[in-house]
Design brief:
This protein is of the alpha/beta class. The chain folds into two domains: 31-282, Rossmann fold (3-Layer(aba) Sandwich); 288-313, no CATH class. Helix content is 38%, strand content 13%. Strands 3-2-1-4-5-6-7-8 form an eight-stranded mixed beta sheet, with helices on both faces. Strand 6 (220-228), helix 7 (250-261) and strand 7 form a beta-alpha-beta unit. Helix 2 (49-60) runs parallel beside helix 3 and helix 2 packs across helix 7. The longest helix has 29 residues, at 145-173. The chain is globular. It starts with 10 loop residues before the first helix and ends with a helix.
Length: 313
Amino acid sequence: MRQTGRPAFTEYEARRKRPKGAKEAMTDTSRAEGHVRDRVLIVTGAGRGIGRATAEALAREGARLVLVDLGCDAEGRGEDPSVVAEAVEAVRALGAEAEGLALDVAAPDAADTVVRTALERFGQVDGLFSAAGIRRDRGVSTLQDDDLQRTLEVGLLAPTRLLRAVSAALIDARRPGSIVLCAGPSAFFAAARQGASGAAFAGVVALARSAAVELRRHQIRVNVLVPTARTRLTEDLPLFRGVHASSMLPEHVAPVASFLLGDLGAEVHGEVVGVAGGRLYAFQSRETVGSFVEGRGFAVGEIGEAWTEVTRG
């Protein structure tokens, strides 16, 4: 999964701002045992990076998995079926049952194929972790239609179709479930050459928030995970310069994804959660109090004088 833009703090800055008494480590893992055991979970982008780390974490915790990865390059071109095959072999070595699909999540019929595979192989589906992504950094004045289309297909259309297919299967079976969609920091933080990906990620956030309202009555939880991690798609970004190689890894994201997918996160719904190394935080929308005039709208000449109050009030 791609992470772009910048985290709210680097891991070093977060340590400096950590409140007194913040825990350095969580040593009690007993509650985590079995919280996804026997769940059938779909993981896209499962061949590498965050998807792979999450798949392995879920395998250790007893989940049954459908892993999806085209094995394309960073810009979404080409394919390599050995990528998902290696991931399947790795999770099976951890004791998990797993099925692998080397397909393009952006294909119109991909979501239905993935869900059908889960149902045919395991007889049920319990959740989705959507982590497939590509990286095509283009300036807004040079962004070509094919780059924009491919970015939106992988970053927004594919998660939308997967959410639709998985939620429909859960509703038909009258099963509760959990859906976690990945987005990137560029949905919230301006970054040059990342307008297309930022638009896709912002769309994912809006999609998930709306779906969370709709699906609550069916006991289907929908959350967004916004990871900042060093992967093959992000390791050359400026935010990782000077950051230790062991900081902000995919393995730091995987436990958060597992939490959101399993029983431990049963009360978490409609949230947008960020993770950067040892920092876990939430993105929340707000509006200012604003400025007011009585009994009429603003005159154009008044707006400039009120602007500070409009944006900071």
